[in-house]
């Protein structure tokens, strides 16, 4: 892989990790479409860490408040989860938010431990099969349709402060489905949030926060695997190029999407997912 290809894939990761269009699906598709070589384990680690840096940088204030609230959350977990906060500025809101993120992380963690190996073998083989691309295309279309339904069925009245633990667990189950490329972690969690009644921007905000532990876990695992395998100078260059571009673009994407969803629906992403899925089916047939 060339440096410019690493930068392109970093941009793709930074955009699609947070837009509801599937980062894993796009990272499978791009090398398949253009016959690019794999960047290796180190490059995978760079992309995960790049998007993690973007989330931490954007939500640094929220993260520091949640960390400071850990002792209070541990002592008062039951009472905090039995009700909603009065508002986002409630003194206990950071403790509640941290607990809700833990709950939302559990389904994805369990699914990752059980299924990550077989899914990686199927979608990230040396030569991606047409069957794998067909699954990505199918998930792009199916989740796009479900997101469209969520836009119409969801009440979109609730803020994050109004969430209860069943809301967080439901969003966590949706996040677990994102192990399948084409689903989209942010797409699945925003969809679940809308069905639970969250406002669009609040559904996206909780999606990004709830994704941090899993992104961190994936990043650390990728780094560990890369260190075990060893890293050449070329892989280090790819690591830096992909990671930096993913971090910069990811930060800008979070900033832009949260503001976009304050006044706009997710319809543009629904249309994109369906059209892109149909395009991939066409490529399978005629390529």
Provide a quick synopsis of the model.
The chain is mainly α. The chain is 78% helix and 0% strand. The chain has one domain.
Structural features, described:
By secondary structure, the protein is mainly alpha-helical. Helix content is 78%, strand content 0%. The protein has one domain. Helix 8 packs parallel to helix 10 and helix 9 runs antiparallel to helix 10 (185-195). The protein is globular and about 55 Å long. The two termini are 22 Å apart.
Layout of SSEs?
Blueprint: H1 3-16, H2 23-34, H3 40-58, H4 60-68, H5 70-75, H6 77-81, H7 93-123, H8 130-153, H9 165-177, H10 185-195, H11 200-229, H12 233-263, H13 267-286
Helix pairs in contact: 1-2, 1-3, 1-12, 3-11, 3-12, 4-7, 7-9, 7-11, 8-10, 8-13, 9-10, 10-11, 11-12
List descriptors.
287 residues, mainly alpha, 13 helices, globular
Query: Residue-averaged pLDDT, rounded?
Result: 86
Q: Describe the sheet with the most strands.
A: none
Number of helices: 13
Q: What ranges have pLDDT less than 50 throughout 5 or more consecutive residues?
A: none
Radius of gyration, taken over Cα atoms and rounded to an integer in Å: 19 Å
User: Which structural category fits the helices and strands?
Assistant: mainly alpha
- Tally of separate domains: 1
**How far apart are the first and last residues' alpha carbons, in Å?**
22 Å
SSE order: HHHHHHHHHHHHH
Portion of residues within helices: over 70%
Report strand %: under 5%
- Tally of extended strands? 0
Question: What best-fitting shape do the alpha-carbon axes yield?
Answer: globular
